Amino acid sequence: xxxxxxxxxxxxxxxxxxxxxxxxxxxxxxxxxxxxxxxxxxxxxxxxxxxxxxxxxxxxxxxxxxxxxxxxxxxxxxxxxxxxxxxxxxxxxxxxxxxxxxxxxxxxxxxxxxxxxxxxxxxxxxxxxxxxxxxxxxxxxxxxxxxxxxxxxxxxxxxxxxxxxxxxxxxxxxxxxxxxxxxxxxxxxxxxxxxxxxx
Length: 199
Fold this sequence. Notes:
Elements: H1 18-29, H2 34-44, H3 52-67, H4 71-79, H5 82-96, H6 98-113, H7 121-134, H8 136-139, H9 143-160, E1 163-165, E2 170-171, H10 178-186, H11 190-195
Antiparallel strand pairs: 1-2
Helix pairs in contact: 1-3, 1-4, 2-3, 4-5, 5-6
């Protein structure tokens, strides 16, 4: 579970990346291994990036996210609705990034559980302040890194559908696919369902 992971700032180079995630999930289901996927993505520019450096920066994060999915989650990601695919992506981000999982669990979950649909700037600021107090690693990050992370977190919330509007901070609940919910409960990942504001 995410708690065993170290806090990291890798999200600064890897936002929601839904399109990229989908490409890699599809290749993995076709039987390609990680090395083959890496080569294919780079040689065929599957992410359609203009700059090769961006590709090399984001690919490790996408591969890491895809590696936490089993075949059922991979299939749900590709075969169900766009919303379900985005929820699977959100789950994979939480599963591979402790800072983001805890943000979802400590900030978003609490708000949705108490029917408070407003994410304010101070909520994000307080979260980072408390993490810096708890962890030496987080405390050592530069202001620029923290600023970037705050932006990426908001962008992920926006693209996943949890944040309706960045300006107003309006939150909304995800409508989770029943099959996805059942599967996550079955594999013991109910904490992630709760972190998304579902019960």
